[in-house]
Amino acid sequence: MNDDLDPALDLPEQLLQLLQAAPAGLGEYQLIQQLKSRHCTHIPNLPLTDKLVLFRTHFLLFNALYSLRERLWGEQAGYVQISPLCIQLLPYQAGSAELSPHDPLRDYYLDLHNLRDTDERDVAKLLASFWTRMQGGEEKQAALELFELGDSQQPLNLAAIKHRYRQLVSQHHPDRGGSTSRLQSINKAMEILERYYN
């Protein structure tokens, strides 16, 4: 079996193939590694140790994921759930996993000016700004409270947080009657906690 992806396929189509082959979903890093191992020409084949390469690779991946999500939703062919730990292809269900009319992340990643206009200094500023905000600990505390772990008597580690994340996603997923905005809050909280506990 040839592991190379068809170079004629655009990145969203290549991602669709990988997600179809992984019904349980894949993390961002796993997706990037699979694309690289299959000689995808759409993302930089460079080590992710350089911050600018990391930013550009992340941006290109998320641009393609949001493009794929829009396309599949428009065709009523599926829904791509994009979260920090798991990017997963879900079946289309009318009226359940609605695309939010204003999704700042989608707007950001679909605007290629954000990729072109971001240089090494900008990436350094983004990271510095993020860590300055994080040092206050307010976002961490808010995320723990959203996960109902703020008063936890047991020691917290990433495994326990991931377990709680999966419970909340299962409980609040729009396909199970939950709300999209609540799910987005849970995903954002997980993003914050991953940085603290990784």
Quick tags:
Helix Hairpins, two-stranded antiparallel ribbon, mainly alpha, 198 residues
| Major sheet description | 2 strands, antiparallel
Strand order of the largest sheet: 1-2
Low-pLDDT ranges: none
Radius of gyration: 18 Å
User: Which structural class do the helices and strands define?
Assistant: mainly alpha
Distance between the termini: 36 Å
Order of helices and strands: HHHEEHHHHHH
Per DSSP E runs of 2 or more residues, the count of β-strands stands at: 2
Q: Indicate the proportion of strand residues.
A: under 5%
Averaged pLDDT = 81
Based on Cα principal axes, name the global outline. globular
Q: What's the number of domains? A: 2
Task: Give your account of this protein's structure.
The structure is a single chain. This protein is mainly alpha-helical. It has 2 domains: 1-118; 136-198, Helix Hairpins (Orthogonal Bundle), CATH 1.10.287.110. Helices cover 57% and strands 4% of the residues. The protein has a two-stranded antiparallel ribbon with strand order 1-2. Strand 1 and strand 2 (87-90) form a beta hairpin. Helix 1 (11-20) crosses helix 3. The longest helix has 24 residues, at 51-74. The mean pLDDT is 81.
